[in-house]
Every structure is written in C-alpha cells, then in structure tokens.
Amino acid sequence: MHPATATGLRIGARILTGSTYAILGADAFRTPGGRVAQAGSTIAALRRVVPMPADDEVVVKANAAVQTLAGAALAFGVVPRVAAIALVASLVPTTIAGHGFWAIEDPAARKLQRVQFHKNLAMIGGLLFAVLDGGRR
To answer: Residue 68: exposed, middle, or buried by beta-carbon count in 10 A (0-12, 13-18, 19+)?
Structure first.
C-alpha cells in the first residue's frame, strides 16, 4: 500500500473511531439518566477491588469524561495509543454494565443486548489495533 494511502486510512480510522466516543461520551456526561441505575451492580462489584467515589452518578460521569477526552484525543491523533488504551479500559466495564444479556429473560431483549455486547467487543478489538498501530501517521 502506498504510504500516503496508509496515512489517509489511519487518519480516517482515528477520526471515525474517536469521534464516536467523544460524541457518545459527551452525551452520557450531560445526561447520565438511566445509565446510573443500569451500571449500579457493576460499579458495586468494581468497588470491591478499585477505590471509587460513593456516588454512582459521579462514576458514570467520570467514565463518560474519559470516553469524551480519549475519543477526542484519538480523533485528533494526540497520543493515540494512550487514548485507545483509556477507551478500552472504559469500554470493558461499560459493556458489562450496559449489555448484560445473560441476565435478561425476554428473548427479544436478550438478543438485542447480545448484539450490542458483541458490537462493543468489536469496538474493543478495533481499539486494540489502534494500540498496536501506535502513533504512526
């Protein structure tokens, strides 16, 4: 592949991937809404091993801030490897908290959440490629 083509693809991939996190993270920060209750059991489990604020909304907003800032950094190519690692670290608990299909009885709702869970796994895979790619232009 021509180096200019590779550079263009890297820039496009970073913009597409990072901007998604920046936009969705900013939305979650502004209006955490039902995310707080949905994440409650996951946050409680994490508190057993990681010190966290007692207020679940603060935790959800902090996670959203990480996604917003790391997403923007990835989109703009600023420390892309660090940004991708931060997004992976943020997306793992988000995926578990938000798409726990294994705990849903209704078959249609379970299928929807399983699709969303696997979509997030694919997003994590793409972020891991960004980590491997590093700071290449």
So the answer is: buried
pTM: 0.90
Class of residue 80 by CB neighbours under 10 A (exposed 0-12, middle 13-18, buried 19+):
buried
Q: Which domain holds residue 34?
A: 3-133
Number of domains composing the chain? 1
Tell me what pLDDT residue 134 has.
62
pLDDT in tens, 7-60: 899 999 999 999 999 999 999 999 999 999 999 999 999 999 999 999 999 999
User: How far does Cα 58 stand from its chain's mean position?
Assistant: 17
State how far the Cα of 134 lies from the Cα of 100, in Å rounded to an integer.
31
Closest to 52 (Cα-Cα) out of 61, 21, 87: 61
Q: Are 14 and 77 in contact (CB under 8 A)?
A: yes
Q: How far apart are CA 9 and CA 123, in angstroms?
A: 17
